[in-house]
Structures are given as C-alpha cells and as structure tokens.
Amino acid sequence: MRRVCLTTLVGCLAALAAAAGPAAAQQLPGVEARRNALKGLTGVTVTVTSPGEDAEKDGVTQAQILKDVEAQLRSGGVRVLSLVEQRELPNAPALRVRMMTVKGGDGVGTRHYYAVVVSVQLVQSARLEEASFRSPLRVITWEGKVAIGIRSVEELASLGDLIKERIDEFIVDWRAAHQGR
Questions:
Q1: Is the confidence at residue 22, as pLDDT, over 70?
Q2: Rounded-to-integer distance, Cα 141 and Cα 121, Å
Q3: 42-55: average pLDDT
Q4: Residue 26 pLDDT more than 80?
Q5: On the CB side of 39, how many CA atoms lie within 13 Å of its CA?
Q6: What fold characterizes domain 4-177?
Q7: Model confidence over 90-102: pLDDT tens digits?
Q8: What is the pTM of this model?
Q9: Would you give the end-to-end CA distance of the chain in angstroms?
Q10: What is the DSSP letter of 153?
Q11: Pick from 26, 72, 17: which is nearest to 48 by CA?
C-alpha cells in the first residue's frame, strides 16, 4: 500500500479541493439563491461516496455515514425519499455527500494522517428549454461550504463532525425555504 508523508498531504489537499467541486474554487451563491433552490421540494434521497479503502479500514464506513446523514435529516425535518419516490419526481432531488481522503504518514512511520475534503450538494434533473436533446441533465442546485482538513487516524471519527456541520447547513436552508408550509 502506498503511503505519503505529511508534507505531501498538504499538497493533496489542494488537488482534493479542486476535485470537490465548484464551491471549493469559487464563491457560493447567496443565501437566498441557495434557499430558493429548495422551495417546493418534498424531500431528498441521499447518496454518499466511499471515504476510501484506508478510511473504511480505519473505521469510517460509507454505510454508517449514510445512516447518520439520513437520521440527521429526518430529525431536522427533511423527508428522506426512497429511490422509488425520488424517481417519481420530475426533478429527482438527491443530496450528495462527497468525501475524499488520502492517507499519509509523518515520514518516520510513527503517525498516520488523512487529508480530508467533504462537500455536500443537492443535485436535481433539469431540462434546457432550447435544447436539441430531450434528456434531462443533472445539475447542482444547492451547495454548502467545502470542509478541508488534516486528521490523524485517531481523529478520523471526527470526519462525522465535518459531515454533520455540512448537513446542518443544508437543514437550516431547508427550514428557511419551507417556513409556513
């Protein structure tokens, strides 16, 4: 298994951030625009990328993150849709939790660290009015702040805290968009 030293992890953060999506490289839309993108939605499905083989071996699993995110959304008042329910909606909203991790060491082999990037995006289907093709496109309609950091293996469980903060951001916008409903 290939390992990288801690100084290399800092370089990896820049590459991971670039891969995390537009929010890592440019300013997020204003709060009102983000909240307007949530108006009229009845719920979302949740997709979670794997945190990576090393992170899974060190105890952070895709299945547990999915379970935790869905529970957090429900307790925050956001309906979690099944895949069948999602497919019945024309915009097929899905909250996408993306994690990227790279494991490295301190160069001496005594401590191991992870470069971590977490992003949360709402993707929906959309059609272009003046398009020559009729297939819907998947577009990002809401995006939270990207979390970037370095965690020791012992601190890897705190990856859940980074995700929780991003989901809390979504819930705040969801509640604001659905006031009075």
A1: no
A2: 8
A3: 93
A4: no
A5: 10
A6: Rossmann fold (3.40.50)
A7: 888 999 999 998 8
A8: 0.80
A9: 52
A10: G
A11: 72
